[in-house]
Design a protein that fits this description.
This protein has 171 residues and is α+β, with helices and mostly antiparallel strands. It has two domains: 33 residues; 118 residues, Glutaredoxin (3-Layer(aba) Sandwich). Helix content is 48%, strand content 15%. A four-stranded mixed beta sheet has the order 2-1-3-4. The longest helix is centred in the N-terminal third of the chain and has 22 residues. The radius of gyration is 21 Å and the shape is globular.
Length: 171
């Protein structure tokens, strides 16, 4: 075989292997796929218990819990990144489950809510009091460490007492 043909075959093999790793690795770690370990799965007990908008708002009132309102769309790159990283973090999942009512709003399916909440970009994260009054909104992607800090800031109601920067220094 000529050197050129060997080079072409090698490039094709590398490309095929790269595509396979990209398509089959759910955890984002190609080494796990190559080693045969597959993707890391989080137990079903540790997932966000997403509520419908109306049901979630009522549930928050009855349980006296803060609300985490998440606006997203399937086509949104940073929404997908939130789901794959931040929303899979065990500490985040536990804190949300224990202290918040989480409501998911697909902006493509619930356009009236998207307009009502003046969502201009995705993802948009809103935090509300148990009585459904607004605390603050946060546009864009947030990593798990920062998101957990925000959840603690909201849950402890320090937003009425000190700035977020000062609160983070106390952690």
């Amino acid at each position: 075989m000529k050197k050129e043909n060997i080079l072409v075959v090698a490039i094709i093999c590398i490309a095929v292997a790269g595509v396979m790793i990209y398509n089959n690795s759910k955890s984002g770690n190609p080494a796990e796929f190559i080693s045969g370990k597959g993707s890391v799965q989080i137990s079903d007990a540790l997932t966000i218990d997403w509520q419908d908008y109306a049901q979630g708002m009522e549930l928050a009132k009855s349980q006296n819990k803060h609300i985490f309102l998440y606006f997203h769309a399937d086509w949104c790159t940073y929404c997908r990144k939130l789901k794959k990283t931040t929303f899979r973090n065990e500490a985040v999942l536990t804190y949300l489950k224990d202290n918040f009512i989480s409501i998911s709003v697909d902006t493509e399916k619930k356009k009236e809510l998207t307009t009502q909440w003046k969502v201009r970009g995705l993802p948009t994260l809103w935090f509300l009091n148990p009585d459904n009054s607004k605390i603050t909104s946060l546009p864009g992607f947030v990593n798990e460490k920062q998101f957990l800090r925000i959840l603690k800031y909201i849950h402890t109601e320090n937003y009425d007492k000190i700035s977020f920067q000062k609160f983070v220094k106390t952690l």
